[in-house]
Amino acid sequence: MLGPVLLAAARSDSIRRVVSAAPVTRPVVDRFVAGERLDQAMTTVRTLTGRGLEVTLDHLGEDVTDRSEALRARDAYLELAEALRVAGLGERAEMSVKLSAFGQALPGGEDLAYANVLPVVEAAAEAGTTVTLDMEDHTTVDSTLAILAKLRERFPATGAVLQSYLHRTEDDCRALAGAGSRVRLVKGAYKEPASVALQDKHEVDRAYVRCLRILMAGEGYPMIGSHDPRMVAIAQELARRCGRKSDEYEFQMLYGIRTAEQERLAEAGHRMRVYVPYGTDWYGYFMRRLAERPANLAFFLRSLATRD
Question: Which ranges carry the Proline dehydrogenase domain (predicted)?
Fold first, then answer.
């Protein structure tokens, strides 16, 4: 299976150099990443919202190695929040952050990440929007959920991501299914050991449905992060059974993947949010997108085969 190989490559500096230097890489990356600059990302936001879609923006960066990098990540999000405020897009665009970019893995990382992300959440509120904390590998889950709890004391709309392939996630869903809680449920895109995560795709899918049932039956706001047509259909049926209105949950999909389906769902009256990454540190994100779906990898390999 190529998936685990690609996930391991996502953290390889030597492979990063090779992939980044390949002439065909940039055009393929552009399918999944909305540019390296904030103004390019904002152009994409206006285009998507003009089509009836909503957006969450991710300034790419993770696994920072010193505090100065964490401060740069904070400042990039503060700039993004201000851009959304000035453009009046707070009701249509929110922000997604990876706490590793805010120093979570550094000494004293939990306190450092909280100190860096707090002003971003404050700025998001001033812009009329909110922040969702992306989930990374299993070693960060407890720290991320602890930071979430502190942020929600002042900013209850702060969201979190849960990954169905982790053995613990059903319990986490129960804990976060209360009133006001916002949870994006995904399958998971990191290479994890069998001791903490399901390895079989069908088992991951079944776990996703179990978690989705918990969230839909709860009092929170489920965000269905999936491109899988079966999961989209199941989510709609569960929402119907639970008596949820169309504004009491939403679908989320990645920029550049199943764009026709994104627009179809929006036109059918569903809330459809597009996850839009931007920035120069695109490599890890790009490799995980290749690992997730064979179609993404095939797209990249065709580009390599047909390069000038």
Answer: 42-299
